Amino acid sequence: MVDIFSKRDGPRLEDVKARRVLKENAGTIRKLADQISNGGYSRSQAEQARRKEAPKPEGLIIHDMKATSHADVPEPYVKVSLNNRVVLVDRSSGRQMQLLGEIRGSFMAKTFVLATRENGFLSPIDDEMFAAIGHLNDAEISDAFTEDDLATTLETFLLPADA
Question: Which of 14, 61, 115, 163 could bridge to 121 as Cys pair (CB 3.0-4.6 Å)?
């Protein structure tokens, strides 16, 4: 003899009956739980409901740490990031304003490559910026001309003297 079990859609009949009995007798079950726990069951239910409520700002001082301070005039500076991207960044917000290029190569020979279509960048620098810093394309990064020197040189060509 072989028993064949097939999976039916929906809950099992005994589960439906058990849920119905629990729902119909919820008040009695709650009273018994409070009697056994000396009121602890109702206190724990009230505490869980209180935790789920949104905080009320009455009398509280709330500091929004995500809010950024936006200056009317951006303060740009050139930053060489850890992944060798060279970007123009707003000092007050920390947001990237323009990708200038990247430093490519190994630790033996590094060069600065401008963000142009010819160098494989999807968002190239504009013609005005290329005219200002185009001579630095394929500039070799070495002990004589470091990444900091590159950032300083880019700032002198891109940023006004009073910035």
Answer: 115
The mean pLDDT value for 75-103 works out to 89
Asked whether the whole model's pTM tops 0.85, one would answer no
- The better pLDDT of the pair 74, 104 is held by 104
Residues of 116-136 as b/e, b for ≥16 C-beta within 10 angstroms? Answer: eeeeebeebbeeebeeebeeb
Which residues face 86 on adjacent strands? 80, 101
Residues 6 or more apart whose CB falls under 8 angstroms from that of 71 comprise 92, 93
Q: In what order do the strands lie in the sheet with 85-90?
A: 76-80, 85-90, 96-105, 110-114, 139-141
* Same domain assignment for residues 107 and 152: yes
> CB-based contacts of 70: which residues, under 8 Å, 6+ apart?
92, 93
Is the pLDDT reported for residue 39 higher than 70? yes
Give me the phi and psi of 151, to 5 degrees please.
-60, -45
Is 67 part of a structural domain of the chain? no
Residue 158 in tokens: 């891109």
Residue 153: inside a domain: yes
pLDDT 10s digits, 54-79:
877 777 777 777 755 566 678 889 99
Q: How many domains does the chain have?
A: 2
SS3 content of the chain, % helix, strand, coil (to 5): 35, 20, 45
